[in-house]
Amino acid sequence: MTRHLVLAGGGHAHVEVLRRLASRPLPGWRVTLLSRAAVAPYSGMLPGVAAGLYRPEEASIDLAALAERAGASLVVDAVTGVDAAARRVLRKGGAPLGYDLLVINTGAEPALARVPGTAEHAIPVKPVDVLLSRLAALAAGMRVALVGGGAGGTEMAFALAARLRGAQVMLVAGAAGLLPGFPAAFRGAVRRGMAERRVALLEGEDVTAVTADGLMFPAAPPLRADAVLWATGAAPPAWLAASGLPRDAAGFLQVEETLRVTGQDAVFAAGDIAGFTAGALPKAGVHAVRQGPVLARNLRAAAEGGTLTAHRPQQGALVLLSLGDGTAIGTRNGIVVRGRWVWQWKDWIDRRFMQRYAEDA
Fold this sequence. Notes:
By secondary structure, the chain is α/β, with parallel strands linked by helices.
């Protein structure tokens, strides 16, 4: 009897699962990829697309072609829920999909409900395809505020400064400040890069409201902006609360080190939707990429009755941050480097990643 593996979401971990299934199918199993789009944007190249360094198609993985090579069926639709008791994935445009094994890799959603006015007036940086379509409305001469001082927000601020010549780009890093948790030397190099590119940095107070005219703060004067981009905070999808699956304190799926959802033999999760019992990971695409090989091995082990292995998040990972103009700043183990060659290094890493999933790979 043929069993059914459902990959819910077109995230970074799932593209690696499909790549491995293409070279080594899973006997006795049919595979369905349920994704809201037929392409998967690669988050590592998104700022480069926004800056004009890449065409959008250069930073997109063709899920239809990848699924075909893996012998999987692609269903283009949005996940709206999971009925764990009945082993069914609910979707927006069709009948539920029954599963014997399920992986949830649908990502997180922008945390737009935490600050009044954000949903009405801000442009979230995710999902990526929606962001790129809305960037077309931004123009030189605008005052653009980007909220979020993490690596993603900082890199996007540089990208906007490169894209919108003559625009006033302002990075609002809030009470946490610029790049919290990163080495002081790295933060200093990024600050100098911002000053050179006339990206204004605002720190010290979190945003209390977003209006049609800009941003409000607890004590600081309002900040006028023609456009506000939101790159801070991640929230679990709303449907997760009704799924019956265990969740962590933040509402994300509670996942063991093996990427199996706690107490669920038939459900795994990866990427931003996963909240690890061993400790929180930043909601960043790099973690989903590194989870992909472990997920692929453990799905095969679960299907064949083998032993699962633990995912060990990389410590002291290399960080390469694009400045939007063909240069970059990098850090690892306290060492900080900067220049055009650092961008070329990042570009080589990103293009090599994309090539793994190309049709002729």
